[in-house]
Specification:
Layout (H helix, E strand, L loop, with lengths): L5 H13 L2 H6 L2 H12 L1 H6 L13 H15 E3 L3 H4 L1 E3 H8 L5 H7 L9 H6 L1 H4 L9 E3 L6 H6 L9 E3 L1 H14 L8 E6 L2 E6 L5 E4 L2 E4 H4 L4 H12 L4 E4 L2 E4 L4 E2 L3 H14 L6 H9 L8 E7 L2 E6 H9 L10 H7 L14 E2 H10 L5 H11 L8 H12 L11 E2 L13 H11 L4 H9 L9 H9 L2 H6 L5 H9 L15 H7 L4 H15 L5 E6 L2 E6 L2 E6 L6 E6 L2 E4 L2
Helix pairs in contact: 1-23, 1-24, 3-12, 3-23, 24-28, 26-28, 27-28
Length: 578
């Protein structure tokens, strides 16, 4: 059970600046706080002026969501590079979150602390998959979730020509973009997190899942392509640990939930409908497309030049791979026109099932249940023709009906006051509303931190995050003196990725090679905190400059931010002056 205390509050506020995957797992209220911070940002609102979205507000839901999808695909790539946000240690993070959550529960539910998912993830060796095999088992990545500003700033980073972000960043970006540009109410958008992935479910029509940069419709979910197979992995193989909605969240490990119970019931029903379809021949063929271990059981009877001939299903699928035409749907004739005559044979092979018999029966018996159809085929297909028939139908059942492992609804529901944000409001009106609700709605409160409202927030959480959880700049300056570090940091471009009086964290400055002096001073602060073993230092900002004072030395950066602050860092203690 998550504890509620001032310590918890401070740690949560601090986590709103670094937004690592593990922090969002411990503090699920941060998930929607990031969405709201992105909605508060001017960045996505600028998209409305792009000709790509001209008159989008007058278009259909399908048009709007596809337009947003294509824009995100064109302007952002998926990034899970371990070097971007650096590494930390399991022991360090376990100690940090001790008291917040039971250690064994954490290991069983979070990929960073020992969880490796179900059979799929064990089989693929998850540490090697993510590039962790070159480190000891004690090392884990930070995998910080980026704000829209940080995602956009990746184009400044060597090797990138567009923006970038990891899966939680992309799901948060999608949610904000669907609201701002797609005019889709936040009430229809549900963020769902598993130990290894994050997706959104949009409860409109048959439902739509976002998956990293792409979207997956119900039709796509069952089309048997490699893309849909990748999209299915998380829901098929993992528990859903968090469902977050504008009304609140529910977490698999916490006894209390803030999501509106009625909204959660609607979500469960809609998602389960999305994950269920009928056993038709098209769906059966789509299933086979993903299961090559069953291909050799089937052949297809075809009329070619008015003569009956046969072709192996494996051969059909091999032609599909390089063709725009498919065996199912309206493209079958065109696909068969592409097939070399030498791939057909005139006598059916005894050990293969003629799949036409499946097609004919399924087309005539839509009304029968899955089990009735299954038993018919098992009773009427000779076992020696396919020894895998029962296994095939067992897997087929899972393909057409996935049961999501959602957080148990037997929780103590604690209602949050409604935030009251809608698609008709302007950005300015939304910011005013979030400010008004910050005292009573935790999403609104944390959104202000994630948005970096430094002119109206306490600085201790920001400073704590800056000096304790920015390992990339610390590693980059590891063997430098303070004077050398100052010279390197001061050589960075002077522009900030955040407008107004908002501040980047040190690793954002380091990664993107730019920052206002008020941001650069915290890069130097992270270095001093790391190498000087708790020696006190003082930061002073105002009057067009930001200074770090340590011992008898003062390091000064020019600053265009209209911020004034005096604070002292001594070991783990941060003191703000009035």
């Amino acid at each position: 059970m998550k504890i509620e205390s001032q310590l918890s509050k401070t740690e949560c506020h601090s986590s709103a600046y670094t937004l690592s995957d593990m922090e969002i797992f411990i503090f699920p209220e941060l998930f929607h706080a990031l969405v709201l911070a992105n909605i508060m940002s001017p960045e996505i609102w600028k998209w409305r002026d792009d000709p790509w979205f001209a008159k989008i507000e007058n278009k259909s839901f399908t048009y709007r969501i596809n337009r947003v999808k294509q824009y995100i695909m064109d302007h952002f790539v998926f990034n899970l590079d371990l070097d971007t946000w650096g590494l930390t240690g399991k022991a360090k993070e376990m100690a940090r979150f001790d008291g917040f959550i039971d250690r064994e529960s954490l290991r069983q539910s979070n990929a960073l602390f020992g969880y490796e998912g179900d059979r799929y993830y064990f089989d693929m060796d998850i540490r090697r998959h993510f590039g962790l095999d070159k480190y000891t088992d004690e090392m884990i990545p930070y995998w910080k979730t980026e704000t829209v500003e940080a995602m956009t700033a990746f184009r400044r980073k060597e090797g990138y020509s567009t923006g970038a972000g990891e899966c939680v960043s992309l799901s948060s970006l999608y949610a904000a973009a669907m609201f701002i540009v797609g005019r889709i109410p936040l009430e229809k958008i549900f963020l769902i997190a598993t130990p290894l992935h994050s997706q959104n479910f949009i409860a409109e029509g048959d439902g739509i899942l976002t998956n990293n940069r792409r979207i997956v419709t119900k039709t796509m979910w069952y089309n048997g392509t490699e893309l849909s197979a990748k999209a299915r992995r998380a829901v098929e193989n993992e528990k859903i640990t968090i469902v977050s909605h504008i009304s609140g969240y529910i977490h698999t490990l916490y006894e209390k939930a803030t999501i509106d119970p009625q909204e959660y019931r609607k979500f469960r029903k809609k998602l389960c409908e999305f994950l269920t379809t009928e056993f038709t021949f098209e769906i059966f063929t789509n299933f086979l497309r993903t299961k090559n271990q069953f291909w050799d059981c089937f052949q297809y009877r075809h009329l070619r030049n008015n003569k009956e001939c046969y072709i192996e299903l494996r051969t059909i699928f091999s032609y599909e791979h390089s063709s725009k035409n498919k065996f199912t749907g309206g493209g079958r004739k065109a696909l068969f026109d592409e097939i070399d005559a030498r791939d057909f044979y005139f006598t059916p092979k005894e050990h293969k099932i003629v799949i036409n018999d499946f097609e004919e029966y399924l087309n005539k018996n839509h009304h029968l249940s899955f089990d009735e159809k299954k038993e018919y085929f098992i009773d009427h297909i000779l076992p020696e023709r396919c020894s895998h028939m029962r296994d095939m139908f067992d897997e087929m059942r899972g393909f057409i009906h996935t049961v999501p492992r959602l957080p148990d609804s037997e929780k103590e529901f604690v209602a949050l006051p409604p935030l009251g944000i809608d698609v008709a409001q302007t950005r300015e009106e939304i910011i005013v509303r979030i400010d008004e609700m910050a005292a009573v709605n935790e999403f609104a409160e944390l959104a202000r931190f994630a948005f970096r409202r430094m002119d109206c927030l306490p600085w201790t959480p920001f400073v704590k995050a800056a000096v304790e959880r920015n390992p990339v700049c610390v590693e980059g300056l590891k063997h430098k003196t303070i004077d050398e570090a100052f010279a390197i940091i001061n050589s960075f471009a002077d522009d900030s990725i955040y407008g107004e009086n908002r501040l980047a964290q040190p690793d954002e400055v380091w990664n993107f090679g730019c920052g206002d002096g008020m941001e650069k001073v915290f890069v130097l602060a992270a270095h001093v905190h790391s190498v000087c073993n708790g020696v006190p230092f003082r930061i002073s900002a105002g009057g067009g400059k930001a200074e770090l004072l340590t011992g008898d030395r003062t390091y000064t950066f020019a600053s265009a931010k209209n911020l004034e602050k005096r604070l002292t860092v001594a070991g783990g203690t941060i003191t703000e002056e009035e």
